[in-house]
Specification:
two-stranded antiparallel ribbon; Serine Threonine Protein Phosphatase 5, Tetratricopeptide repeat; cytoplasm; mainly alpha; 7 strands
């Protein structure tokens, strides 16, 4: 039986466990994407609201059924299979449940005994990390519910919510979203489906919808750490993606009625904790603003709006004066505007931070060339090629600078003529200085 190993998430409110998710070239930063897999927590015994029995895409039992042969191929054995359950007693063994026997035939709401057993088996498989097999059990229970004709939408909702957790664990974010939405259509403020759907949206990089669901979770229960972390992550993503107007592009965040909010008694934080939170919030806000300004500068460069880009990069350096990439980016803007002295200064600053930064050497070489300092330009280009001999731009530039050096008189030897002060010479009697200080001849009389 195939068994996935995933990072175990931290407990959150209402959940047992959950997680958050050269020149030559590029001017901007690559974005860090969130984890493709989230955790919606283990299956819940009390869930949201009812929905019909339509099977979700990818939810059939055949799709996820594992044959005994595959179980053996993955390290299981028939003996371990026999230890998993005791069919005669309807109980899983203590070894399967960490030392506590589980009654797989325990009643589950209004579900008929066969469906209740499928649900209990799914819960047990989920707890042991066998998510594909648990998903199979929940799918069979959902199909059995539709075939039985019973009317217990609350129990059906639990099955959908639990199966959504399996989809999320199994990396099937789209089907997770569909199952969560089935629940939320009838009970819009069910916390677990909202949190799981937010994580699924985030893994699909649908950040605006993820933000709305995370914020809705926090309206229900402000103490859910996974939602707090999710809001922080998504805010940074949206600032970089949409710029300062990112809030205007969000879907509406639904207001949560007072009856759906979970009121928890929160102990007052100490002064140290409050100070730490304030400092972290300030750092996070500064990081978000820095990333947004840098991205705006990169976008302006792509539009050839170099003067405006310089302003953005300058603001970045006021916040973080140790960012080498910002110096080299601003140097490029100065080069495009033929501000060679400023470009050289930025490259000097970048090389103090990173002494082997090829981009800084290359752009400083261009600045030296603009300043007609061909010797210095040649030296920087040679350093670029020493660091990476494959940089063709540097090779071509070096050839041109070498030609300019040969044509330039700056490296030709010059004759040095000593200069003597007139005042240091003995003046003959037949010379005198005029009132204006000019030496003139004086006619000698016999």
């Amino acid at each position: 039986m195939s068994q996935q190993t995933l990072q175990q998430p931290q407990p959150v409110g209402g959940e047992e466990k959950s997680v958050g998710p050269a020149e030559r070239g590029d001017m901007g930063n690559s974005q860090k994407k969130p984890h493709g897999r989230g955790s919606g927590g283990p299956p819940s015994e009390s869930s949201s609201s009812p929905h019909g029995g339509k099977k979700s895409k990818g939810g059939s039992a055949d799709k996820y059924r594992v044959t005994p042969e595959s179980k053996l191929a993955n390290g299981s054995s028939k003996s371990s299979e026999s230890q998993r359950e005791d069919p005669s007693s309807g109980r899983a063994t203590a070894a399967q449940n960490g030392g506590d026997a589980v009654n797989l035939d325990a009643p589950c709401g209004a579900l008929p005994p066969p469906l209740a057993r499928l649900k209990n088996e799914g819960n047990l498989l989920f707890k042991t990390g066998q998510f594909a097999d648990a998903l199979d059990k929940y799918s069979q229970a959902i199909q059995g519910y539709a075939d039985s004709g019973i009317d217990s939408p609350q129990d059906l909702c639990i099955l959908y919510s639990n199966r959504a957790a399996c989809f999320l664990k199994d990396g099937n974010s789209q089907d997770c979203i569909e199952d969560c939405t089935r629940v939320l259509e009838l009970q819009p403020f069910s916390l677990k489906p909202l949190l799981r759907r937010a994580m699924a949206y985030e893994s699909l990089e649908r950040y605006r919808r993820a933000y709305v669901d995370y914020k809705t979770v926090l309206q229900i229960d402000i103490s859910v750490q996974a939602a707090q972390d999710g809001v922080s992550r998504i805010t940074r993503m949206l600032m970089e993606q949409d710029g300062p107007e990112w809030r205007e592009k969000l879907p509406d965040i639904p207001p949560v009625p007072l009856s759906a909010q979970q009121h928890r008694k929160v102990e007052p934080a100490s002064a140290e904790v409050l100070q730490a939170r304030a400092e972290k919030a300030a750092r996070d806000a500064a990081e978000v603003l820095f990333s947004a300004l840098k991205q705006e500068g990169n976008d302006l460069v792509k539009k050839a709006q170099y003067h405006q880009a310089v302003g953005k990069y300058t603001e970045c350096l006021k916040m973080k004066p140790d960012q080498c990439a910002v110096y080299t980016n601003r140097a490029l803007c100065y080069l495009k505007q033929e501000m060679f002295t400023e470009a050289k200064q930025d490259c000097d600053a970048a090389l103090k931070l990173e002494p082997t930064n090829m981009k800084a050497f290359y752009r400083r070489a261009l600045a030296h060339r603009g300043l007609k300092d061909y010797l210095a330009s040649r030296s920087d280009l040679q350093e670029v090629l020493r660091l990476d001999p494959s940089v063709q731009e540097a090779e071509k530039e070096l050839e041109e600078v070498t030609l300019l050096l040969r044509q330039s008189p700056q490296d030709k030897p010059r004759k040095v003529v000593p200069i003597r002060e007139v005042e240091a010479l003995l003046q003959p009697s037949w010379m005198h200085r005029s009132p204006g200080g000019v030496l003139v001849w004086r006619t000698l009389l016999n």
